[in-house]
Design a protein that fits this description.
Length: 336
């Protein structure tokens, strides 16, 4: 099983210390965090694309290219690239370039996006047509594409550079949509499933649907699932919660104001830390046990944790990465 991290590069004020973190400081810290994740043996680090004042990463490929120069083994992925509002040719070129800079360590995770700053209309046909074009670019060096309502026609035009191995790992990111599960499975693409609320075990119906769709399309052998969650690790559960809750609350309460749900309480947060909750917060042993207990029902091959949800002290983040790599990752690999 693979274990990694992802973040959006949150900026703002640390609610615990009052420290101000701007984009320049956050990006410098972020490169140190990715470098440490590589050193302690984590498998993947993902950066999300957002176009809001409270996030420093609007161009994941740019930051990941910088990370390629300070790492040697860890895979470098977007988490996600908002394909609905971008050009598939440029996206492919950016990540193929990253792949060459990193000696073949680039991955691309594409989705429709959960915010609307980067494009005002996220509708399914737009994403589906751009995804089909992106996959065709990956499949052939000289692109022949008829064009559609949302993509340009291309007549045997080369798209360069090509990835080191000839193909890019392209994951499809999704939330709770059954249609997204079927699409990813039918295309034979690995699925990145976001679980940031509710009871993770209930998502087993979706992962089962994805694997059935993959099998029916002849892609059973290539079906893979990444579980993308919120969480934090410290020496004990109370310490982990005290560090993570104030920062995550700022993020979730802002989303709540925008989307119509109430503020998060500490009691709700603590309850979600339990074995059946969506908060992967606790000691290394607790995080390990929680992941392994869910694996049989959900059938995932990778777990990526958003530990930097909100502004958390950089020193605490480094300690958490160290614990994740030195204690959690080895136990997960030992379990197979």
């Amino acid at each position: 099983m693979e274990l990694g991290l992802y973040t959006f590069g949150d900026v703002g004020t640390n609610p615990a210390t009052g420290e101000k973190v701007d984009a320049r400081k956050r990006l410098k810290h972020l490169l140190e965090e990715i470098r440490l994740a590589d050193e302690v043996g984590l498998d993947v680090f993902g950066l999300g694309e957002h176009h809001r004042a409270n996030y420093a990463v609007s161009s994941p490929a740019t930051v990941l290219a910088a990370a390629a120069s300070v790492t040697s083994k860890i895979r470098l992925s977007s988490a996600v690239t908002v394909l609905s509002s971008d050009d598939p040719v440029r996206v492919y070129q950016q990540f193929a370039t990253l792949d060459n800079l990193s000696d073949g360590r680039a991955e691309l995770m594409v989705g429709r996006g959960s915010f609307i700053e980067s494009f005002p209309l996220f509708y399914d046909a737009l994403f589906e047509e751009k995804l089909a074009m992106l996959l065709e670019i990956d499949a052939q060096t000289l692109l022949r594409w008829p064009g559609s309502d949302h993509t340009q026609a291309v007549d045997r035009q080369g798209v360069y550079p090509r990835p080191v191995s000839g193909r890019l790992p392209i994951w499809i990111a999704a939330g709770g949509s059954r249609q997204s599960m079927v699409r990813a499975g039918a295309l034979g693409r690995p699925l990145a499933l976001a679980i940031i609320g509710g009871e993770p075990r209930r998502f087993s119906a979706l992962t089962n649907l994805y694997r059935r769709a993959a099998a029916q399309a002849g892609h059973a052998d290539s079906a893979r699932v990444s579980m993308n969650v919120h969480g934090f690790v410290a020496k004990d559960a109370r310490r982990a919660a005290d560090l993570f809750y104030p920062a995550q609350k700022v993020v979730m309460d802002q989303l709540g104001r925008e989307r119509g749900w109430g503020p998060q309480s500490r009691a709700q947060f603590d309850a979600a830390m339990g074995p059946e909750g969506a908060q992967f917060v606790g000691s290394p042993a607790q995080i390990t046990d929680k992941i392994l207990s869910l694996r049989e029902d959900l059938g995932f091959d990778r777990v990526t944790i958003q530990m930097a949800a909100g502004v958390i002290a950089h020193s605490e983040m480094l300690r958490a990465i160290e614990l994740l790599g030195s204690h959690v990752a080895p136990e997960l690999r030992k379990a197979g």
